[in-house]
Design brief:
Elements (H helix, E strand, L loop, with lengths): L1 E5 L5 H13 L7 E5 L7 H5 L14 H10 L7 H12 L12 H23 L3 E3 L6 E5 L7 H11 L5 E4 L3 E5 L4 E5 L9 H12 L5 H7 L12 H14 L20 H11 L3 H8 L25 E5 L4 H6 L6 H12 L7 E5 L6 E4 L2 E4 L4 H18 L3 E5 L1 H8 L5 H4 L3 E4 L2 E6 L2 H6 L3 H28 L1
Parallel strand pairs: 1-2, 4-5, 8-9, 8-12, 12-14
Antiparallel strand pairs: 3-4, 5-6, 6-7, 10-11, 13-14
Helix pairs in contact: 3-5, 5-6, 6-14, 14-15
The structure holds uracil.
């Protein structure tokens, strides 16, 4: 039996490295036991290093498995590492395994990923900050007990939503702290350690009396290291740094631009302003222009928000702006947009009446000389941006949403969705009708002209289903 000791409960990279090495050495799932390191235990390295590495070994798994595994690993089920290794093992000889939804392992991993995403949604919907500290230096704190280990994945949403307020989300697993330009992760705390006004006042008194020293704080008050933005900032700052050294918690986002101008604005006023603004696309677009919910804003030229009439009955969702869209600030104006325009026309849909947006609103790319090569957005980026799609959906209230490609389908349906299984049929999702089809850039990439023509026709057929649905609902109205 091989015992693999991972660094922490959400150590996806550790699991991935160990699983790869085990699989290329043909170590059967039944011969592996997975556990998480306690302070005095062996590290992962000493356990798998006994197995030879074969760096050149080809080991490909479907991208969807990686996305599922990254989510499922956050589930509290103790069997998750073993389940994921079993799936990985089986995927070697059965590449389509993940489509076999009646397979117990496949069903379980999907259920775990769904539970994790549901928990993130619950946290996004229910978490409430309260204000602590003094007027000019207010800090916002929320206590939350997530069902799964989701804090690091869920936190960027709040950085986008409450970008100009310093906040801390305190949980028993880990705490997340936002200072206006980066999220820091520190160890979790017990509910009894959540600060009250009294404890804060006490800290202030000790500070005023010269008793509030960093050393004392480190020993006695470590869990409260989120007091970064209170006036004793210079005292607290090293503590945050210490805390981050003590944990493997990353900076989720790092500062590359000048810090945002801090507005000393009470949370209540901000929430009222949000409430008033919510509902109009123009107001949402203004708000999204400063979105920092994931790191993509740093390299992109601008946020490319959705466009189209607020009365649109059809909403099209793409993946993310491309090079041309990033420069122009409008969705679907480049080559994929031109193909989309042509297909819409052939399907009898007037683009001017459609609201068109993207799952992710900043361009993701890697520079290659003078070219910016498009990169597919990952699940955290899609999830961080989903707040905008949700708010666009609430503002437009379309009859039908058409998701163009896998990233769009993932955002619209809230889960990873294989296109081939779902395309071309109407899906009832929450209060919305959804149709999934391919992305026009997939058609542009097809090398074979015959396949391209066939696929283009299928794309038009899908859009015609959308057009038919809109006609039916217009007649019914
Ligand atoms: N691809 C997309 O998904 N969206 C755009 O806006 C352009 C290309």
């Amino acid at each position: 039996m091989r015992i693999i000791v991972l660094d922490n409960d959400t150590d996806f990279e550790g699991w991935r490295k160990a699983a790869r090495r085990l699989a290329i050495n043909d170590v059967k799932p039944a011969e592996v036991m997975w556990t998480v390191r306690k302070d005095d235990e062996l590290s992962l390295a000493s356990c798998v290093n006994e197995l030879p590495d074969v760096p050149q070994a080809q080991f490909n798994v479907p991208a969807i498995f990686v996305e599922l595994a990254k989510a499922a690993i956050l589930h509290r089920n103790d069997e998750r590492f073993a389940l994921l290794y079993r799936l990985l093992w089986r995927l070697r000889s059965h590449h389509d395994l993940l489509s076999a939804t009646d397979d117990p392992d496949v069903a379980e991993v999907h259920a775990m990923a769904r539970a994790v995403y549901g928990d993130i949604d619950r946290m996004h919907a229910h978490l409430r900050f309260r204000e602590i500290g003094r007027e000019r230096t207010a800090h916002y704190v929320a206590w939350f007990e997530p069902e799964h280990r989701i804090v690091e994945l869920a936190a960027p949403f709040f950085a986008g939503r409450f970008a100009d307020m310093p906040w801390s989300i305190l949980t028993p697993d880990v705490c997340a702290h936002w200072d206006g330009h980066a999220i820091a992760i520190t160890p979790g705390i017990a509910k009894s350690e959540v600060p009250t006004e009294d404890r804060l006042e006490e800290a202030w008194r000790r500070h005023d009396n010269g008793l509030f020293s960093p050393a004392r704080l480190k020993v006695m008050e470590m869990p409260q290291a989120y007091w970064r933005n209170l006036p004793e900032d210079s005292i607290i700052k090293p503590l945050i740094e210490d805390a981050m050294r003590m944990t493997s918690g990353p900076f989720i986002a790092r500062k590359t631009a000048e810090p945002q101008q801090r507005q000393d604005q009470p949370m209540a006023r901000k929430q009222t302003r949000d409430a008033q603004a919510r509902g109009t696309i123009a107001a949402l677009r203004d708000e999204a222009a400063d979105c920092r919910a994931c790191p993509l804003w740093k390299d992109a030229t601008q946020t490319v928000f959705g466009e189209g009439p607020q009365s649109a009955t059809l909403m099209l969702v793409g993946e993310q702006p491309g090079d041309k869209e990033d420069l122009a600030g409008h969705p679907f104006v480049g080559p994929a947009g031109q193909m989309l325009d042509r297909a819409l026309e052939e399907a009898g849909i007037d683009r001017a009446k459609v609201y068109i947006t993207n799952a992710v609103k900043h361009f993701k790319f890697v520079p290659r000389g003078k070219i910016r090569l498009h990169q597919k957005p990952n699940t955290p980026e899609i999830r961080a941006c989903r707040q905008w799609y949700e708010r666009e959906l609430a503002a437009i209230k379309p009859e039908l949403v058409v998701a163009l490609g896998a990233s769009a389908a993932q955002s619209v349906l809230g889960k990873i969705t294989p296109i081939n299984k779902s395309r071309g049929r109407l899906i009832n999702h929450e209060a919305t009708k959804v149709l999934v089809t391919v992305h026009p850039s997939y058609l542009l990439r097809l090398p074979d002209e015959k396949a391209k023509a066939l696929e283009y026709q299928r794309f038009i057929d899908d859009l015609k289903i959308a057009a038919g649905q809109l006609r039916n609902s217009a007649h019914a109205a």
